[in-house]
Amino acid sequence: MKNYIFTSIFLLFIIFSLSSNFIPGINVYKNFWIFFKEMITYLPFMFILIGLFDVWVPKEKVEKHIGKESGIKGVLWVMLLAMLQAGPLYSAFPVAYLLWRKGCSIRNVFIYLGAFSTLKIPMLTFEIGFLGLKFSLLRTIITLPVFILLAQIMEVYLRDKNFEIKNP
Amino acid sequence: MKILLIFTFVCLLLSLFFDRKKTFSGIKRGFLMFLKIFPSFLNVIILISIFLTLVPYDKMVKLLGKSSGVMGITIASVLGSISLIPGFIAYPLASILIKYGVSYRIIAVFITTLLMVGILTLPIEIKFFGVKVSVLRNCLSFIGAIIIGLIIGVFL
C-alpha cells in the first residue's frame, strides 16, 4: 500500500492543477498521460508473454540454449530475442528476471539488456528513417562489442558473489 | 506495437489450443507479476513527466544546439542519462539538432546514453538487480556510451 502514497499525492496535485488552472501542473499531467499511454499499451502484452513463456518453456531448454555453456550461439539467441521486442528499457527487466530464473547465464542476461536497449528492430527502423542508414549501421557495429564487453565485465565481477535477480 | 499485439495474440491462441489450463495459469502468473511491479512503473513515469516539464524538449534542443566540444559531450551525456524519451520523439529531435549544425559526435553520445543509461528508471532496476549491480551497470554503460559517441564522431 505504501507504494501508492507517492501516486496519491501526485493525483491530488493533478486534480488541484486542473481545477485551479495551474499551468506547470497541467503540463506535468500532459506529459504523464503520454507516458502512461505508452506503458499501458506495451506492458499487459509483455506480461502475458512472460506468463506464457514461464509455463511453456522448461528450464532445461533455456539452460541448454542460453545457459553457462551455450557459447556464441547463446549470445546470438538472446540478441535475437531482444531485437524482436519493443518498448522502453524498464519493460525488459521482468523478462531478464525470468530468463535468469530459467537458467540463462549472467553474461547473457546483460547481453539481453544491452541488445534490448540499443538494437531493437522497431527502434532501428526509426533511427534509419531519421538519422540515416550510415549513422545507424555505424552505431550498431560500434555498440555491439561494447555491450558484450560490459556483459563480460558484469559476469566476471558477479561470478562468485551469489548474485540473484529478484522478483520485486 | 502492432507486431507485439499480433505476436501475443498468436501465442495466446496456440497456447489455448494446446492446453487451456496451462494458458490460464500462465496469464495469471504474468498478471500477478504485473500487479506487483505496477506501482513502481507508475512512480517512475510520474518522475519522468515532472522532469520533462522542468526540461522540455525545446529547451533540450536549445541546450544541445548551442554546445560543442567537451562541454557539449558533457551536456549531451547528462541529458541522455537522466531523461527517458521514447524513440518516436528522440529521433526526430536528433534530426532537428543535426539540421542546426550539431555534430554527429554529440548526437551519438546523446542517443546512446539515452538508450543505455537510465537514472530515472533506476528505482525499478534496483528492485530487480539490487543497488550495487544497477549502479555498476549504469556507470559502465555511461562510459561505454561516451566511447561509442567519440568513435562515431571520428567516422561521421
Overview of the molecule:
The complex is a heterodimer of chains A (about 170) and B (about 160). Chain A is an all-alpha fold. Chain A has two domains: about 1-55, no CATH class; about 65-168, no CATH class. Chain A has helices at about 5-20, 25-55, 60-65, 70-85, 90-100, 105-120, 120-130, 135-160. In chain A, helix 4 packs parallel to helix 6 and helix 6 runs antiparallel to helix 8. The longest helix of chain A has about 35 residues, at about 25-55. The relative contact order of chain A is 0.09. With about 160 residues, chain B is mostly helical. Chain B folds into two domains: about 1-40; about 55-155, no CATH class. Chain B contains eight helices and no strands. In chain B, helix 7 crosses helix 8 (about 130-155). The longest helix of chain B has about 35 residues, at about 20-55. Chains A and B meet through helix 1, helix 2, helix 5, helix 6 and helix 7 of A and helix 1, helix 2, helix 5, helix 6 and helix 7 of B.
User: Per DSSP, what share of the residues of chain A sits in E-state strands of 2 or more residues?
Assistant: under 5%
Radius of gyration of chain B: 20 Å
Q: So how many helices of chain A?
A: 8
Largest beta sheet of chain A, briefly? none
